């Protein structure tokens, strides 16, 4: 039976005809998918007009039941197809509309990703590493949570030494141990002991890392800071080697025209010991605010490894000698770039960090 025929039959029935005409008008005026779904529900939903009518046919006389059942189902089929056809059309329109709305103008300039940069301290550490690697040194690391033995005892630092006091060192409470052997290293020097313990001479190493001290933060103090430790042990190493090495380092770091001087000092693990100054790179040595008028800036501590330290690690001080040095990274950054306050390094204010 052609579509026309059953539509005529439907139209001829007052009730089905009414549903048909109204559904057709509703379909026509449905302007988008949402409205169309409304039409579907209104006629074919569980309580839709056509569904209700089809549910009702069971109460009709057999003849009527057959007639209305047949026409009702034909009407349902027609409506389902009409809904699908119109749905397809609407979706195409809506897709085109969305494409127009979401069109991307590929000729517009892009938005650049903000590129991160290295933290100033990381670059300084890398610079120091590069200079020493260039002289044949090897990079090593040690733990930040250290044992008293490595941080003090094996570095020839006696129990009464002031740096061992509770007010200077962060001790780590190890529950149940009842001992105060564990601490946050106050210097990177314990790495010297660990490396010598694990490796026979000769040895040329640097150990960058964090160190901790119970200091109240101010312009020149921070409870966490960075150091780079250096250690060279070989046959016949002299103070001259130490001086030459540090001279080379400071000139690479601060400029070729820099001078270096050694001032006698004391460190428990070196003998003799010195503090090393570089001629002020701000005023060129004539005296300024940064060098406090002296023309010199202190940049590190150094010395010849004390034979007692060799004793702790099983090196024979009759066979080998060595030098060691330790520098504060923040201090070097402060001097090299004229940063006036150590706290700036840890505030993470982008206005400062972006400058380097
Ligand atoms: N560990 C010392 C400090 O934190 C610095 C230092 C001095 C390291 C002399 C050394 C050295 O290796 O030989 O003050």
Mean pLDDT, rounded to whole units? 92
CATH class of the largest domain: Alpha Beta
Q: From the alpha carbons, calculate the radius of gyration and give it in angstroms.
A: 43 Å
Look up the CATH topology of the largest domain. Answer: BirA Bifunctional Protein, domain 2
Number of domains: 2
β-strand number: 9
Q: Could you say what the CATH architecture of the largest domain is? A: 2-Layer Sandwich
Strand and helix map with partners:
Elements lengths: L2 H10 L1 H16 L3 H12 L4 H8 L5 H40 L18 H14 L4 E2 L5 E3 H4 L30 E3 L5 H9 L4 E10 L11 E11 L4 H16 L5 E8 L2 E10 L16 E10 L1 H7 L7 E8 H9 L6 H4 L2 H4 L3
Parallel strand pairs: 1-4
Antiparallel strand pairs: 2-3, 4-5, 5-9, 6-7, 7-8, 8-9
The structure holds 3,4-dihydroxyphenylalanine.
3,4-dihydroxyphenylalanine (DAH) binds next to β8 and β9.
Description:
With 356 residues, the chain is of the alpha+beta class. The protein folds into two domains: 99 residues; 234 residues, 2-Layer Sandwich (BirA Bifunctional Protein, domain 2), CATH 3.30.930.10. Helix content is 43%, strand content 18%. It is built from 13 helices and nine strands. The strands form two sheets. Strands 1-4-5-9-8-7-6 form a seven-stranded mixed beta sheet, sandwiched between helices. It has a two-stranded antiparallel sheet with strand order 2-3. A hairpin with a 2-residue loop joins strand 6 and strand 7. The longest helix has 40 residues. The radius of gyration is 43 Å and the shape is elongated. The mean pLDDT is 92. The protein binds 3,4-dihydroxyphenylalanine. The site of 3,4-dihydroxyphenylalanine (DAH) has 11 residues, from strand 8 and strand 9.
